Amino acid sequence: MFTGIVEEKGKIEAIQQTNEALALRIAAKKVLEDVSIGDSISVNGVCLTVTEFGDTWFTVDVIPETFRGSSLARLKRQSEVNLERAMQMNGRFGGHIVSGHIDLTGTIERTWIEDNAKYYYIKVAETKLIALKGSITVDGTSLTVFGVDHQGFTISLIPETQEATVLGKKMSGDIVNVEFDMMAKYMERLLEVSNHTSGITEERLQQLGF
């Protein structure tokens, strides 16, 4: 599990591709401070397992399912990536609960600046699990939704997030990894099951304040 608070930007040093599988070697520093083989590290929002590491690098494997369902297949040598270690139970919880299992990819349709904030409108295949002022993860970064319609959603980056994450340099046309809020996904599943087995309905949940 992760929090969506990016710890550092790593850089792709090498890529080995076999059909729809990848082996990535990533230069990093902070996430290597207590690393072990088998640890989980979020790479642009995708939970991957450390297979090897050195003083300034680590390697991960990308399986075909992840290759097809994420933006990792678009990475090149020298590409920067957002990195976050799995959360510690005794640490501060600065973002929201993030699984590292992305739901879909989105396309940045447009960006604009308002004072010190940079806004992004991201087009996605579905938006039913996105709530205004709710949480969403984009390329591993925990963000607040400032707008949502049937085609996409809007997020905003403060200067610190623009500098500390790869999102700050993303432009129109770029593909990003998107993970919906975990509570929304479980609620949707609960409604699907409950509609067939009990009297719980969306209207009843709204009456109860959900």
From TrEMBL:
Function: Catalyzes the dismutation of two molecules of 6,7-dimethyl-8-ribityllumazine, resulting in the formation of riboflavin and 5-amino-6-(D-ribitylamino)uracil.
Pfam families reported for this sequence: Lum_binding (PF00677)
Pathway, per record: Cofactor biosynthesis; riboflavin biosynthesis; riboflavin from 2-hydroxy-3-oxobutyl phosphate and 5-amino-6-(D-ribitylamino)uracil: step 2/2
Lumazine-binding repeat windows: 1-96, 97-191
Source species: Gracilibacillus halotolerans
EC number of this enzyme: 2.5.1.9
Entry protein name: Riboflavin synthase
SUPFAM superfamilies: Riboflavin synthase domain-like
An example Gene Ontology biological process: riboflavin biosynthetic process
Domain of life: Bacteria
Domain Lumazine-binding: 1-96, 97-191
Keywords: Repeat, Riboflavin biosynthesis, Transferase
GO terms for MF: riboflavin synthase activity
CDD domains membership: Riboflavin_synthase_like
InterPro entries in alphabetical order: ATP_synth_asu-like_sf, Lumazine-bd, Lumazine-bd_dom, Riboflavin_synthase-like_b-brl
Chemical reaction(s) catalysed: 2 6,7-dimethyl-8-(1-D-ribityl)lumazine + H(+) = 5-amino-6-(D-ribitylamino)uracil + riboflavin
